[in-house]
Write a structure and sequence with these properties.
The structure holds two protein chains of two kinds. Chain A is mainly α. Chain A has 15 helices and no strands. Chain A has a domain of about 190 residues: Orthogonal Bundle (MetI-like fold). In chain B, strands 6-7-8-3-9-10-12-11 form an eight-stranded mixed β-sheet, with helices on both faces. A four-stranded antiparallel β-sheet of chain B has the order 2-1-4-5, with helices on one face. Chain B is globular, with a radius of gyration of 21 Å. Chain B is built from 13 helices and twelve strands. Classes of the chains: A mainly alpha, B alpha/beta. The interface between A and B is medium-sized, with 20 and 26 residues.
Chain lengths: ~325, ~350
């Protein structure tokens, strides 16, 4: 009951939060120099043509009026139209957001699978060889740019070894994509029972997900290691040791206390990577939402950018809500 | 009183990472604690008194020396201690908030030491209920989490947890320094009540001299990882024979304007670094009585009788310089007189009486 009330209250707050995010991003996007009308009409356009296009696009209104119109359209589910793709932004995003989500989720899952065990292992034995590897890895992962690692992986696994398909998109061009249900190609292929499409989609997913996983395991590893070390050195762990408690119980209790900070860093990374994975998306021609938004910024195509911000904001708020619910489950102090 | 804990020539040094040098935390500490007795271990912060406590409970490995508990050698790492000693030596930490697992209910925290001893569940419940009542908390609190308790209550829980295994020795590592004066007085009274009931021996580590005077039977003064003076608490406080003890005692402020602890011995300068220990007596650089000999050789222990030991070449001069009067004892009597005059024969008076005995 308490949890339902809590979720209700949180959902209530999401509306003003989103309004604030939309306002700020609207102002920021509008402050980027560049005129879409000039870009759309090309270098030979006459001032009259530009002015008439301005009127058509509603750019002749004042900023508050433009914002009001945008909000009114938003209320009807209209996120505007991208002049680059000439399609409604909502349609574009529904197509591209799952691609990014698929990539980022799998990448983050790999990062957790690498970072958490390594961090735990090095916290248990600060002078062991695993701790040495973990320290070196944490340093390396923190200093490598992701797009560079992506290129190295492409060189090794595509160019040299030929183990994975070419880094061009999410599925082989010769294969008919499965009918879209979730937008996530691997899942859709499984739903359609199309093994060929699944193999191809999964093969395309390996390298970009591995890139994100290897890079983002760094912060997860560091956070796991430091919070676990802190807990194992705290007085309550020491007390258990001197009482003669079994080692695995001491570790379990320390882990229970270290977990919230690990969950926090994972959730922060999740929200960040929706836009932060854009360089990896570009290297692999992923065609995801991040790439779409960057194209929008570069070409004064406002609506895709705003739509992307809105989508990722909703996603981040959703992730944070889930994280808070996880806190509820793992931390008795909050729910009590 | 036959000693249950004997610490003999204890040394502990910590390597400094990235260098071949060491922090020499403990430099030859010898003392013993009798059954049912309280030994106060006093000294400035950084003097190594906490490290002594950690060596005894087996949290820190010693570099050299020997620790015996009821005749059995416990100088080895905790894991190799004989099984039957489990729970016989307990520890109460300085920070009650950090010594309790924030995600564990109070009842579970108190119960924990019994799990290691493999006590059956039904017996555990009874012991936990007894333990929480012994420290003056209600049974309803067993269901709470540490964050819902005050610092004083948390420390009571830590004491209940330590007492649940019926230990014969409890190392109390500054158990009252994180508490406000009221909670401090309550915890001290509680500890003395428990000792009177159960006959537990305490090693009371503290820098708070008035508390040590109140609770201890004997006192050992630690300076730079060395016990410079030890003896009966009344004797050491009334007539300190080591310049360091005298200096330390004169620095205490008693909460009464009539009592001042002026001493003609004033220590100057800072405590030397435990990395580069000075030659000779560690106090020589700060001591107004230091002579050439003090800078060359470490004074050997001098037995003054009645278990009063001092490491000082000039302890006779200290005795003649420092007027022998136990201001602490006078203060205590005065406090008792005031309290008795208020007709509320509170617990403080009674406890004061037992500490003098």
């Amino acid at each position: 009951m308490r949890i339902i009330l809590y979720i209700g209250r949180r959902l209530l707050f999401i509306v003003p939060q989103l309004l604030g995010i939309v306002l700020v991003s609207f102002l920021l996007v509008k402050s980027i120099p560049g005129d879409p009308a000039v870009l759309m009409l090309g270098p030979t356009a006459t001032p009259d043509a530009i002015a008439s296009l301005h009127r058509k696009l509603g750019l002749d209104h004042s900023l508050p009026v433009q914002f009001w119109i945008y909000l009114k359209n938003l209320a009807h589910g209209d996120l505007g139209t991208s002049w680059q793709t000439t399609r409604p932004v909502l349609e574009d995003l529904i197509q591209r957001f799952p691609a990014t989500l698929e990539l980022v989720s799998l990448g983050l899952l790999l990062a957790v699978l690498i970072g958490v065990p390594l961090g735990l292992a090095s916290a248990f034995n600060e002078r062991g060889w695993l701790a040495g590897i973990a320290n070196f890895y944490g340093l390396g992962a923190g200093s490598l740019p992701d797009f560079w690692l992506a290129l190295v992986l492409i060189f090794i696994f595509y160019t040299t070894l030929q183990w994975v398909p070419a880094p061009l998109g999410r599925i082989d061009l010769t294969i008919v994509p499965p009918p879209p249900v979730t937008g996530v190609l691997t899942v859709d292929a499984l739903l359609a029972g199309d093994w060929q499409a699944f193999r191809s989609a999964a093969g395309h997913l390996v390298l970009p997900a591995l890139t994100l996983g290897l890079i983002n395991a760094g912060p997860i590893l560091k956070m796991t290691q430091s919070s676990m070390e802190k807990m194992l050195q705290s007085d309550f762990s020491r007390y258990e040791v001197l009482c003669g408690m079994p080692r695995r119980l001491v570790v379990r209790h320390a882990l229970r206390n270290a977990l919230p900070s690990v969950v926090t860093i994972i959730s922060v990374l999740y929200g960040f990577l929706i836009g932060g994975a854009v360089l990896v998306e570009i290297v692999f021609s992923w065609g995801g939402a991040g790439q779409y938004a960057v194209q929008g910024v570069l070409n004064s195509d406002f609506y895709p950018v705003l739509g992307f911000v809105l989508f990722s904001a909703i996603f981040s708020l959703f992730v944070y809500l889930v994280v808070d619910l996880i806190y509820f489950a793992i931390d008795p102090r909050i729910s009590h | 009183m036959s000693p249950i804990l004997e610490v003999e020539d204890l040394y502990k040094r910590f390597p400094i990472s990235g260098s071949r040098r060491y922090v020499q935390a403990i430099n030859g500490v010898t003392f013993s604690v009798g059954a049912g007795e309280t030994l106060g271990l006093v000294g400035e912060s950084g003097s190594g008194k906490t490290t002594v406590g950690r060596c005894i409970v087996g949290l820190t490995e010693l570099s050299a020396g020997r620790i015996r508990f009821k005749g059995e050698d416990i100088s080895k790492p905790r894991a190799r201690w004989p099984r039957h000693l489990l729970g016989k030596i307990q520890l109460v930490f300085q920070e009650p908030g950090e010594s309790l697992d924030p995600r564990m209910r109070i009842g579970r925290s108190i119960e924990e030491p019994l799990l290691a001893l493999k006590v059956p569940p039904s017996e555990r419940r009874a012991l936990v209920a007894e333990a929480i009542e012994r420290v003056g908390l209600s049974r309803e609190m067993l269901e709470l989490y540490p964050a819902e308790l005050s610092a004083g209550q948390q420390q009571r829980v830590a004491i209940a947890r330590a007492m649940i295994t019926s230990p014969e020795l409890v190392v109390l590592d500054e158990p009252t320094s994180a508490l406000d004066p009221t909670a401090r007085a309550e915890i001290i009274a509680l500890l003395m009540k428990i000792q009177a009931e159960l006959g537990t021996a305490y090693l009371f580590i503290s820098h708070d001299l008035s508390t040590v005077r109140f609770i201890s039977h004997r006192v050992a003064v630690v300076y730079l990882g060395m016990i410079v003076e030890q003896g009966d608490v009344g004797e050491v406080f009334a007539a300190p024979r080591h310049p360091y003890s005298a200096g330390l005692l004169s620095a205490v402020l008693l909460p009464h304007p009539h009592f001042s602890l002026e001493s003609s011995i004033r220590l100057e300068g800072e405590i030397p670094s435990p990395i580069n220990l000075p030659q000779g007596c560690f106090l020589a650089s700060r001591c107004p009585l230091a002579i050439a000999r003090c800078r060359q050789e470490m004074p050997p222990p001098d037995n003054l009788g009645g278990g009063h030991m001092v490491h000082c070449f000039r302890h006779r001069d200290v005795a003649s310089m420092d007027h022998a009067s136990d201001t602490f004892a006078e203060f205590q009597r005065e406090a008792e007189r005031i309290l008795a005059g208020q007709k509320t024969a509170g617990p403080v008076c009674n406890l004061g009486g037992t500490s003098n005995g």
